[in-house]
Write a structure and sequence with these properties.
Layout (H helix, E strand, L loop, with lengths): L1 E5 L5 E5 L4 H13 L3 H22 L12 H21 L2 H9 L3 H6 L5 H20 L2
Antiparallel strand pairs: 1-2
The chain binds zinc ion (ZN).
């Protein structure tokens, strides 16, 4: 049955509770200790914004080359790049992630977003070697 729960944030929200009475009661009790859906979502968004700001600050000393790709790829890839580089600069020496800094292909960042730090650095070394080939040939 549907129950209106007043959440810890003070907002009321309807919930459809199922199960035995005792289960519904427990669920209702627990729901009262949580925030409503809207507050949960906006809280999550605020966390993401704060995390993104922290990452940007962590890589602000790096001279990041502009990414190449479609506008959509670039926007997504720059978020990934900022986040990954922020983590890399915290835990690795500069030479390790230098290769990552040189990769400007937005698609590469999107493709590599789930790799571990080590795998990503290996992939970046390969990618930047490939990218530097044309400059070696006069
Ligand atoms: Zn709320």
């Amino acid at each position: 049955m549907e129950q209106r729960i007043i959440h810890s944030c003070g907002h009321e929200q309807a919930h459809y509770l199922t199960g035995f009475d005792s289960q519904q009661e427990r669920k209702a009790k627990w729901l009262k200790t949580t925030t409503c859906r809207d507050c949960f979502v906006s809280g999550k968004r605020a966390e993401e914004v704060a995390a993104a700001a922290l990452s940007s600050a962590a890589v602000s000393h790096l001279a990041l080359p502009p990414l190449t790709g479609t506008a959509r790829q670039i926007s997504w890839a720059s978020t990934i790049r900022t986040k990954r580089l922020a983590l890399l600069t915290n835990s690795n020496s500069d030479t390790d992630h230098n290769a990552c800094l040189r990769v400007t292909d937005a698609k590469w960042w999107i493709d590599c977003r789930d790799l571990t730090d080590v795998d990503m650095m290996v992939a970046a070394n390969k990618a930047s070697n490939m990218q530097s080939v044309p400059t070696l040939v006069p």
